[in-house]
Amino acid sequence: MLGFSSYNYEHFSRDLFHDLAQTSFSGPAPGERAPDFKAVTLDGEAVRLSDFAKKKNVLLIFGSATCPMTAGAIGGINELYDRFRGDDIEFLFVYVREAHPGEIIPAHSSMREKTEAARLLRDEEDMQMPILVDDLRGSIHRKYSRLPNPSFLVDKSGRVAFLSLWSKPDALAAAIEELLELQQERGVDHVIVSGGQDLSMPLPYSALSAYRALERGGKQSLNDFRQALGLPARVALTASHLARPLLDNPGRVLSIAALTAAVLAGGLYAGFELRKRRLGGRRNPYRAYEKEQVRDTDTGTDYGAVGI
Questions:
Q1: Residue 269 in 3-state DSSP?
Q2: Pairwise CA distance, residues 233 & 269, whole Å
Q3: Is 84 helix (H, G, I), strand (E, B) or coil?
Q4: Which of 171, 179, 208, 214 has the maximal Cβ count within 10 Å?
Q5: With bands split at pLDDT 50, 70 and 90, how would you rate the model's confidence at 191?
Q6: 85: number of CA atoms within 13 Å, CB side?
Q7: Distance CA 236, CA 238 (A)
Q8: How far is CA 293 from CA 160, 263, 275, 299, in A?
Q9: Is residue 153 classed exposed, middle or buried when 0-12, 13-18 and 19+ CB atoms within 10 A define those classes?
Q10: pTM of the model
């Protein structure tokens, strides 16, 4: 049986990244029933997904303190929570394994460590939504793709109305609005919205948030990231580190993006082409999540490595 040590890897590496690029998406598809689960929030409240059936829609967001995608999305997710949370929709953030473990936030070896990391993320990102802490084996995470930062909009019927492989606030806002509108118009609980899924990767804002997330993990997290992803990682971390003091001022985010866009685009494109050649031929390493024949990793385990 797979132990939790394999799920909670100690280092992010190039091999793990390549495993992700070659592993098919394994979470519930649009229209499928969302796997039920039970977990406890940081406030000690027991929550079961099926308790919301016929009562509320639920937005599930997955992430960790050392995940750049989570860091890039969480501000917008907090705004969605303030805007939509109420009688028709609940938000649940599921804290999973560390995307980029380091010496400050290492791979979780106890629930105490994992809970402390979740509290750190909550406090540093000013999160008000309920945070559920997954167990050490990733029992919830395994049911929902094992990717570092996916989101699933589960409607009142308990089925997936929309999924995003990376939590993007704008796409999620549009999906929530459409779901609530169609449920009211049609008087039904289940509707697939916004085409059912968003498979694209939000590279610009994740690059600008990379340093903040990896710094939480420590020097090991930063070094592993650089070594695993090469030139694009170095470019992204440099831009993110330089931009960090300005990112606290929302009015200057657009100017930061404009100043770094050309450099980021060049570095990311170079990395894209390099990874594509390493993966063999014409395969797009960022479109490897679509349903296809499931392949085991070289380690023989049943989990997929996290990405950027």
A1: helix
A2: 12
A3: helix
A4: 214
A5: very high
A6: 14
A7: 5
A8: 21, 37, 21, 18
A9: buried
A10: 0.77
